[in-house]
Design brief:
Layout: E1 8-13, H1 15-18, H2 32-43, E2 50-53, H3 61-73, E3 79-83, H4 86-94, H5 103-120, E4 124-128, H6 140-158, E5 162-164, H7 166-175, H8 191-205
Parallel strand pairs: 1-2, 1-3, 3-4, 4-5
Helix pairs in contact: 2-8, 3-5, 4-6, 5-6
């Protein structure tokens, strides 16, 4: 495990990260972040790791940009785990009249945010691939998602970040023989989906 005693690990992203954190007395939510936090408490209690959840439902990369300084830079955590991209694609399908964040703009904004993080803090970076849009490998959402996943993989190399291969793992699950459903509605995780997210994250950082 890469973490050191008293490290603060900040998670930022959309509703998959948020998972009801604003109505949770602990501010952690009921998603994959809680499962990771609980693992830290149970199995790495000697490290006294602090988990901070800054997920916000509905966020796109443009929304992260608007709150990046307040929610990330000023907090100067030891680690920042970013999960973004699902809404950037979903809005293209669900709300086509809204101003869209296509791959080029997504990459430009994401690059700027990570550059600021690298230049203004000592935070180490963890980048999560966006997961899936509908539990069908050939869905319109998953096809549109491909360039965004590739951008996250590229940025992980550029910024020497830990890459969490969540898209690959979810697609492999859909390609397998398992009939287990991972989402409530094609996007938001059920218990099994959150478990797969947390397991994939922990495996990548060990």
């Amino acid at each position: 495990m890469l973490f050191k005693t008293n490290d603060r690990i900040l998670f930022i992203g959309d509703s998959i990260t948020d998972a009801g954190r604003l109505v949770d007395p602990e501010g952690i939510g009921q998603g994959y972040v809680r499962l990771i936090r609980d693992y830290f408490y149970k199995d790495l209690s000697d490290l006294n790791l602090k988990v901070i959840n800054k997920g916000v439902s509905g966020n796109r990369v443009t929304d992260l940009a608007s709150r990046w300084n307040e929610d990330v830079i000023k907090l100067n955590p030891n680690w920042v785990s970013v999960s973004i991209g699902i809404n950037d694609v979903w809005r293209q399908i669900d709300q086509p009249t809204m101003e869209q964040v296509y791959p080029k703009k997504f990459e430009e904004i994401y690059t700027r945010l990570l550059t600021e993080l690298s230049e203004e803090t000592q935070s180490q970076i963890i980048l999560m691939e966006p997961t899936v849009i509908v539990e069908d490998r050939q869905s319109e959402g998953n096809q549109k998602l491909i360039p965004y996943v590739e951008i996250v993989r590229k940025l992980a190399k550029v910024f020497n970040a830990i890459l969490i291969p969540t898209h690959r793992v979810f697609i492999e699950h859909l390609a397998g023989m398992s009939s287990e459903i991972l989402t409530k509605d094609g996007v938001h995780m059920n218990n099994a989906g959150n478990k797969l997210l947390a397991d994939t994250w922990l495996a990548a950082v060990k």
